[in-house]
């Protein structure tokens, strides 16, 4: 796919080019939106709002970096705005200035599928879930996360540490349950 | 960058996470990106209409001013011109007879060309041939002057109003009376058309040429005298002008105030649309709400879509003050109460056990309804206090029954509402969420009004009104129907206060 040509045709609002761009990026971007929300319906809502913003602002893409990364950034921003505005999320979408939590350096083995792992992340409280997604998966620094969410760096670190600890404990439990089931079947 | 191996593993796993979205997602995206074009077009059309209106108003004002200026200059010129012509004739005849001088004086005092002509015509018969020649010349000139008078008359009548109009009419009447008087006098009977026409007919063409040459010589002689006479009359005219102040072209009724006030009531209907300046759309196009993608084992129940938004009863009532800018334009500022509503068709109210979810978010936990179904007809009502600011332009020229176009903007503050909004939770519900309401609203309006009755004290008018809000009343991420619009029939009374 010739990205430059595709983008230019989308800017000229050629329907076939717009559809092609959508088809290419819709599936991975829905995965991104899925990680930030609590339901597939909400994820689709974020996806369609995100793509509307993509097509309206495509003229601002300067071909510096990958198109996928640019679209992904828009999806993340759209997801954050959705969480702030949505009444189901915004009352939990607050970040208290907690004491710094020590970061655990466990590195358990991950034997789960991507979807199972995403579902585990989605079970975290919304604040933890968001910061975990932004730092561990998107790769934003705590300083950047602080600016995006309007919190200080320390709060972001602390929230992330708690989220990480919680997630690791669930992964380990999941592994134990998996062993038990397997040993039960074998015996 | 991920801190250690755990983050790297998580990140790489998540790169593989993909889901196929439903087809309705693309339909929605496509619809939204095409709609923005339509909204832009409406905004451009509205702005162009506003610019055209402004330009027409300015043109009218400038054009009226220029017309008045031209009329002023024409008013100044016409008496002077007439004076000149009258004097030029009187100075020509001075050489022929001494009695002409007397008439000249009379003419100067009377200051009307018709009298001059009549008096001259009276005395022409008693003069010798030269005078007869002069009479014939005068007759020809008189015919020309009649034409000139006809040309000048409309200007005078247009520019003068009130007392001056009456004066000009009186003058014309006086002139006509004098004509009749002359006609009634048997010895000096003169009717301009038949006898005056008879004389030039009697004159042979051979006589006309020497006549003309004699007249030309007389012209030369009287040229200087004419100049002196005109300068004298000019100074006289100027002195008179200096004494009397320049009269205004359009005299306003001194008893009419610039400020007026009035009351209005405007019943109508209101609803919510997806676009501020476009027509409302049916929510049934949102098919994606009906078939959510299954995210787990089993088949989840179908999510209920938002209800179609139906129009509800609305009205505006209030008072306003109006300031006249010109005889056809005015500005008004009002204070009014606005009630608007829209109707939803929803399902039953949910039990309180399920609605604890909403309690922390500023929502009314006791009023949660299922979406879908036609069990309950719920009326969302909105109570506003509004400040309309309107520009009014009279489209016709009838002062008694003006036809007016009003356009302007309104600032409103929502003071109370019982509105419920759609949410995707629990497969589609409706509940109150005041956080989604934008309480300060800006809207544009346009209206036409016909005056149905007008007397000294009050003026009654009626006409249609349309009001469209520029910002969303309800900012709901799950339902785009958020722009309020209102159409109604305005009945108003304007109090014509006199001093």
What's a concise summary of this model?
Chain A has 187 residues and is an all-alpha fold. Chain A contains nine helices and no strands. Chain A is globular and about 50 Å long.
Return the string of H and E elements of chain B. HHHHHHHHEEEEEEEEEEE
Question: Residue ranges of chain A: pLDDT <50 for 5 or more in a row?
Answer: 182-187
Strand content of chain A: under 5%
Which architecture of the largest domain in chain B does the CATH hierarchy give at level 2? Beta Barrel
For this structure, the CATH topology of the largest domain in chain B is Porin
Total individual domains of chain B: 2
Largest interface: A-B, 51 and 49 residues
> Number of DSSP strands of chain B?
11
Q: Could you walk me through the main structural features you see in this protein, from its secondary elements to its overall organization?
A:
The complex is a heterodimer of chains A (187) and B (499). With 187 residues, chain A is mainly alpha-helical. Chain A has two domains: 3-90, RNA polymerase sigma factor, region 2, helix turn helix motif (Rna Polymerase Sigma Factor, Chain: A, Orthogonal Bundle), CATH 1.10.1740; 114-186, Arc Repressor Mutant, subunit A. In chain A, 72% of the residues lie in helices and 0% in strands. Chain A contains nine helices and no strands. Chain A has helices at 3-11, 15-36, 40-56, 67-85, 87-90, 114-122, 126-137, 142-149, 153-186. Chain B has an eight-stranded antiparallel barrel with strand order 1-2-3-5-6-9-10-11. In chain B, strands 4-8-7 form a three-stranded antiparallel β-sheet, with no helix packed on it. Chain B is elongated, with a radius of gyration of 41 Å. By secondary structure, chain B is an alpha+beta fold. In chain B, helix 2 crosses helix 8 and helix 4 packs antiparallel against helix 5. Mean pLDDT of chain B is 69; it is low at 148-208 and 278-297. Chain B folds into two domains: 71-243, no CATH class; 255-288 and 304-495, Beta Barrel (Porin), CATH 2.40.160.20. Chain B contains eight helices and eleven strands. Chains A and B meet through helix 2, helix 3, helix 5, helix 6 and helix 7 of A and helix 1 and helix 2 of B.
């Amino acid at each position: 796919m010739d990205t430059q040509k595709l983008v230019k045709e989308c800017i000229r609002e050629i329907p076939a080019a717009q559809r092609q761009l959508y088809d290419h990026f819709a599936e991975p971007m829905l995965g991104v939106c899925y990680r930030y929300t609590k339901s597939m319906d909400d994820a689709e809502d974020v996806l369609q709002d995100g793509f509307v913003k993509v097509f309206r602002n495509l003229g601002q893409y300067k071909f510096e970096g990958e198109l996928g990364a640019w679209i992904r950034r828009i999806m993340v921003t759209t997801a954050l705005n959705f969480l702030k505005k949505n009444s189901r999320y915004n009352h939990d979408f607050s970040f208290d200035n907690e004491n710094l939590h020590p970061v655990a350096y466990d590195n358990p083995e991950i034997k789960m599928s991507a979807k199972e792992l995403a579902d585990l992340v989605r079970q975290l409280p919304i604040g933890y879930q968001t910061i975990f997604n932004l730092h561990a998966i998107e790769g934003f620094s705590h300083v950047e996360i602080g600016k995006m969410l309007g919190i200080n760096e320390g709060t972001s670190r602390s929230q992330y540490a708690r989220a990480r600890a919680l997630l690791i404990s669930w992964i380990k439990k999941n592994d134990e349950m998996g062993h038990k089931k397997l040993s039960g079947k074998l015996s | 960058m991920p801190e250690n191996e755990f983050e790297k593993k998580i990140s790489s796993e998540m790169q593989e996470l993909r889901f196929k979205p439903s087809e309705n997602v693309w339909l929605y995206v496509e619809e939204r990106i095409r709609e923005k074009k339509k909204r832009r077009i409406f905004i451009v059309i509205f702005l162009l209409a506003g610019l055209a209106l402004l330009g027409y108003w300015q043109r009218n004002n400038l054009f009226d001013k220029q017309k008045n200026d031209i009329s002023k200059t024409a008013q100044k010129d016409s008496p002077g011109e007439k004076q000149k012509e009258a004097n030029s004739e009187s100075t020509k005849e001075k050489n022929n007879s001494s009695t002409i001088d007397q008439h000249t004086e009379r003419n100067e005092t009377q200051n009307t060309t018709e009298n001059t002509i009549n008096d001259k015509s009276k005395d022409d018969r008693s003069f010798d041939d030269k005078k007869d020649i002069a009479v014939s010349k005068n007759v020809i000139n008189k015919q020309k002057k009649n034409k000139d008078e006809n040309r000048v008359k409309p200007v005078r009548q247009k520019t003068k109003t009130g007392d001056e109009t009456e004066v000009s009419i009186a003058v014309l009447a006086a002139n006509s009376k004098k004509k009749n008087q002359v006609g009634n006098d048997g010895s000096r009977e003169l009717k301009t058309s038949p006898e005056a026409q008879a004389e030039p007919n009697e004159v042979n063409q051979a006589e006309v040429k020497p006549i003309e040459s004699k007249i030309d010589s007389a012209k030369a002689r009287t040229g200087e005298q004419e100049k002196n006479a005109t300068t004298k009359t000019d100074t006289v005219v100027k002195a008179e002008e200096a004494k009397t102040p320049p009269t205004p072209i359009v005299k306003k009724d001194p008893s009419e105030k610039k400020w007026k006030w009035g009351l209005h009531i405007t019943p109508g209907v209101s609803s919510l649309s997806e676009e501020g300046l476009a027509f409302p759309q049916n929510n049934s196009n949102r098919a994606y709400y009906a078939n959510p993608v299954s995210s787990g084992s089993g088949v989840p129940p179908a999510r209920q879509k938002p209800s179609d938004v139906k129009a509800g009863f609305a009205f505006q009532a209030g008072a306003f003050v109006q300031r006249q800018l010109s005889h056809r334009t005015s500005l008004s500022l009002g204070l009014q109460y606005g009630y608007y509503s829209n109707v939803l068709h929803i399902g039953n109210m949910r039990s309180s056990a399920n609605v604890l979810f909403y309690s922390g978010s500023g929502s009314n936990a006791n009023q949660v309804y299922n979406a879908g179904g036609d069990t309950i007809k719920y009326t969302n009502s909105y109570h506003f206090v509004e400040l309309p600011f309107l520009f009014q332009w009279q489209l016709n020229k009838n002062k008694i029954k003006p036809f007016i176009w009003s356009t302007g903007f309104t600032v409103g503050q929502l003071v109370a509402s019982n509105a419920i909004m759609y949410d995707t939770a629990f497969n589609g519900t409706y509940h109150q969420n005041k956080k989604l309401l934008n309480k300060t609203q800006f809207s544009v309006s346009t209206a036409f009004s016909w005056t149905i009755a007008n007397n000294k004290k009050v003026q009654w008018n009626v006409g249609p009104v349309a009001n469209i809000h520029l910002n969303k009343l309800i900012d709901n991420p799950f339902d785009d129907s958020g722009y309020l619009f209102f159409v109604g029939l305005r009945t108003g009374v304007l109090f014509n206060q006199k001093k």
